[in-house]
Amino acid sequence: MPADLVTPTDAPQPEDNSRRSFLKLSGGIVGLALAPPLAAQAERLTAYSKTIEGATDLTLRINGQVRTVRAEPRVTLLDALRERLDLTGTKKGCDHGQCGACTVHIDGQRVNSCLTLAVMAQGKEITTIEGLAKGDELHPMQEAFLKHDGFQCGYCTPGQIMSGVACVKEGHAKTDDQAREWMSGNLCRCGAYANILAAVREVAGKA
Amino acid sequence: MELDIEPNFADTNPKAGVVGQPLTRVDGRAKVTGAAKYSAEYNNVPGLVHGVFKTSDVAKGRITGFDASAAQRAPGVLAILTHQNLPKLAITPDTPEGKKAIGMGVQMGFLPLTSDQIYYAAQPVALVVADTLERAQYAATLLKVQVATEVPTVSYQDPKAKLFDPTKLTVGKTENQPKRGDAQTAFASAPIQLTATYHHAITHHNPMEPGATIAHWEAPDRVTVYDTTQGITWTQKSLSAMLGLPVDQVRVVNKYLGGGFGCKGSTWPHTILTIQAAKAVGRPVKLALTRPQQFTSMGHREDQEQTLRLGATKEGKLLALLHEKTSTTSAWDNYAETNAKIVDLLYDCPHFEAQTQLARANVMTSTYMRAPGEAPGSFAIECAMDDLAYRVGLDPIQIRLLNYAEKDPSTGKPWSSKSLKECYARGAELFGWSKRNPKNGATRAGKTLVGWGMATASYPVHSGQGNARVRLYADGHAVVQAGATDLGTGTYTVITQVAADSLGITPDKIRFELGDSALPSTIVSGGSMAAGTVSSSVYLAAQDVWQKLTKVAVLDKKSPLYQAKPADVEVVKGRLQLKANPSKGEEFAALMQRASMGDVEGIATGRYGAGYESAQAALNASKTKKDDAGEHSMHSFGAHFCEVHVDPELGTVRVTRWVSVVAGGRILNPKTARSQIMGGSIFGIGAALMEGTNRDPNLARYTNASLADYHVCVNLDIPDMTVEFIDEHDPYINAMGVKGIGEISIVGTSAAVGNAIFHATGRRLRALPITPDKVLDAMRQPA
């Protein structure tokens, strides 16, 4: 793995490293979410190691809390969450970025955590399904999924909800067909699609 | 209140309560917050380590040796288990005695890691255990396996394959080769004869949650297993037999199941192998199948072809149906979906005959997949009926009404209830069927061809039974327990509703516990049996509670019911009162507090299907005859209506409208029921248009074992869907009057799509999935 991948940059990069989509996104509401968190100022004073071998302590900011996890550089963010931090709300459906069950937010953008190494997520703001509600108060997307029965078995649900929240923020839920397309990276084998659509569109309508 | 005459919910609860209301899922909050714990997520088990399979690259051969030197030296490795060192099991399913002792829970008659034989590609050949997942995964790549490779047989279509009649083996001739009248002769003399062959690709259940097991030996002779199973009671029994432990020493837990669709109905090799790995390393082991491994670890729907010959009068009245099926099975088992049943059942036809042939190949055993038999069988009969409609110039609904079966043609028995005509009528109304152009290929939207198709659905009420316990507390709360599972079907929710009405308290006062073999045993959540069985057991257990409290009341001088006859007492919304004079009575809480009863417990066995109507006949019937032991034939029915848009230049098919109307007895919760019907239809749309696993024709390996290459429907594939239910009151099927609805919605679905494509293009496509290449190919042929 190139060492520069773990070097913190001055500004967060878009997930796909595409400058175009980054510029597009940073113009809107998402731009605020993308602004570097204050905590990162202090963290940046300590340079991350250029090379990492074997298990090291990684510092991850998850759901507003700083968590330290000892893991090898090959550990994915998904496995760090599920196997080391007991944040099992994020699901593993395929481990290859094909199903979307592992979707989390990194600096406000939806990301497949199975395709993200934990070590790369240092210095970034990670939000998982466990961090979406404010105490007992559910996020409107969670409420909408309950209301519209946007799930059956519930296994794809955390990924659908994280994706749905981002989809609305991106402005990709303005019509039914647009929301269908931009939610099509999240598979649901129980077939709750029509209800997921209803939930996402309802939240988009209120946004 | 005599339990000898089994009470029926419709009689004791005539007024609407929460049953039948669209209650939001009671487990919903846990699912939307990530709090719901699935089988691979019990990380608090002390000392948990990770297991990973090393699988075979070849489909046939013999293991001649291992080179484990590098793998053993890899950091963190605790054990490398192979057939040479796996702790020995008391019994394995590869002998007839073993299979019998293990029971229905294990379907596959071969257990990897017990011999040097390789029978199918990606068969596990070793299980590597290490302290972390990554280290186990890496060590597995270092393990070298030496194999003497042989040429595999790929499928029934392989020239090497030998077809055989499975009825001579496990199933028994009469069950598997049904025959009524003289179908050959009737067909030969029929004025209209239609013969066609239908192909069905291999399909995989692919629940979003792959199979996973955590095995924790809490004592040398006691193990707890967190397992992705639809049936904890079956799993517990089969594991105890294989381990040689008393049943109570094996505990199986499954609180949340990430979909199943049949593949989690049986206990598959990874579960018992994880348990043995945990034994070998002396620590709890977690093993989660990878997605590619999911394709070769928990069964599939077999590749198959059906030839249906249909004989009819010039007017379109059926005279004869002859059904032949050929499919692939594994080296050891004779599994085949029983497609013929629905072909025999749907329409009034005097002559019927069917036969099934199998061929052994280097594949793992196929298994139950949502409506096994009914789903592919309905594709054949429902496309054939559509063909017949065109042939005689009738509307597709008219041809079905002309051949409507007023009683079950396969048994001659009356239906317990059948509201299929209402389903046709309501579906047609919702869809706007009357505006359909009877001509094929005559409706266009721009350059897109538009087609409307429909098909009939049906699914049997299998015979089953299960237990439940209800504990009612004097403070007005209750705990309800049954060892069921909820694979997204809504079991948590609908049973909470049934308990609420049965106990006369609100749903928020009830905790329904399921998914633990320490709870009263019940049926597997499969075969659309769980809702009807568990709801009936819980309802009856509540009646047991009332019977116990009535006995206390009539002895209590301070009770208004003192010295009343128990038979004169009724319970309405938790109030015990005289039937003749309802003002004389009291709430259960007051009675219990006076009698110093903190709680009262009721237990009951609920029966589903023939066992409810004819307990004695079902008890004494052979295993394959239990469903038919009642005086009535018990089935749910429905109808699907589908609109497709076909691009004649690209061959793409999009489903643009969908209507399903289902008559499934009492609907416990229309919100979850609607979701289940939509989900089953989407499952069927996938099978119709995109799902298929390809086996390499030389190597017998799957070439698309991933969710990128095996296509399931995504959100954009699915249009607005309309689902409605027809009200049905059926007193014969169980105490709640419930017919299962988990599977019916995939029955007829692929035919509805195929019939719509026929209407759009004038081309009949008989090989599933109907992918663009097949459509284009058909468009090049004359209509």
Overview of this structure, please?
Chain A is α+β, with helices and mostly antiparallel strands. Chain A folds into 2 domains: 129 residues, Roll (Ubiquitin-like (UB roll)), CATH 3.10.20.30; 67 residues, [2Fe-2S]-binding domain (DNA polymerase, domain 1, Orthogonal Bundle), CATH 1.10.150. Chain A has 8 helices and 5 strands. The termini of chain A are far apart. The N terminus of chain A is likely disordered. Chain B is of the alpha+beta class and 783 residues long. Chain B contains 22 helices and 29 strands. In chain B, strand 14 and strand 15 form a beta hairpin. Chain B is globular and about 85 Å long. Chains A and B meet through helix 4, helix 5, helix 6, helix 7 and helix 8 of A and helix 2 and helix 20 of B.
Keywords, separated by commas or semicolons:
heterodimer, A: 207 residues, alpha+beta, Ubiquitin-like (UB roll), DNA polymerase, domain 1, 2 domains, five-stranded mixed β-sheet, 5 strands, 35% helix, elongated, disordered N terminus, B: 783 residues, Aldehyde Oxidoreductase, domain 4, seven-stranded mixed β-sheet, 22 helices, 29 strands, 23% strand, globular
